[in-house]
Amino acid sequence: MPRGKQLSVEECRKIDMQVRERRSNRAIAKLLGRDEKAIRNYLRRGKASSATKRTGRKRKLTEREVRRVFRLAIANGLSANQVRNKLSSLPSTSTVLRTLCSRSYMRYAKRKPTPALKPHHKKKRVAFAEKYASKRKFWRAVVFTDEKKFNLDGPDDFRFYWYDMRAEPKFISKRVNGGGSVMIWAGINWYGKTELIFLNGKQNAVKYTETLSKGLLPYLGELRLKIGNLRPIFQQDNTSIHSARFTKTFLEINNVETLPWPAKSPDLNIIENVWGALACRVYANGRQFDTKTDLMRQIKAEWKKINLEYLPKLVRSIPKRLEATRLLKGSKTGY
After folding, report:
1. 116-157+174-327: what fold?
2. Which is one GO molecular function term here (predicted)?
């Protein structure tokens, strides 16, 4: 049977007082709401027993090893199992996990992929934020677009690590090459989303404008009917095929107004949030795919399920993103 709760100092004082009044063990136990055996054991062992510390089993890790656990996990980026193998006492992985989780500031999270920001990138990000942060209604007319790769065996950059919440999160470079994959293009806006376009082969400016003809131009036509006096604005990043002369000419001919976008700023593009939600659904429960056809079918199905009520919430977050960019002097935000 498990041991009962240890007698408190106050209870021991009451027992001593009742004993001096020649009360029986049974009467004292009834008065305190305790088992008679607890009273008897206390009197047999003496008053020092109340202060006896229940130490339990000796700790597996010394204080020095505990410090090393955190150092290996945080500084070296090792997993709990890898940390275990570095310790001479060879504790269980569960012991290492309990040690890491014992600190409220420790979290196990995925490394965030991000492009490197140079001073001139940060300067342009701040200028962009200062110009557009207060234009709340303006963002309803912007169509945010981007390409996204989906792998057969799961999403890129799915690597987790232990990190100290009191420090800056770590980042890793995006993986360039993967296994079998499909590439898609799409756009979102306050009012809805474009058609999902699957891209074939290596992309260039000509193929990109074909994608815009299929996905962007029809949506802009629909959008003009919804936004009244506002003029639709097209957002894209600065990859080479987007900024090519052929692409610029195509946009001018079709009277498409573009938004000058700061380089290396995926954290400001709300479609990145949609890509994240879409990937979670496509790869739910560790799902993997044997063929591109199966993967494409799943992507189409999940794209249709994207809740349109989710999109205005993302648009409302843009002024906050820009303000965060300004306050951080152009550095990466948490979005």
Report:
1. Nucleotidyltransferase; domain 5 (3.30.420)
2. nucleic acid binding
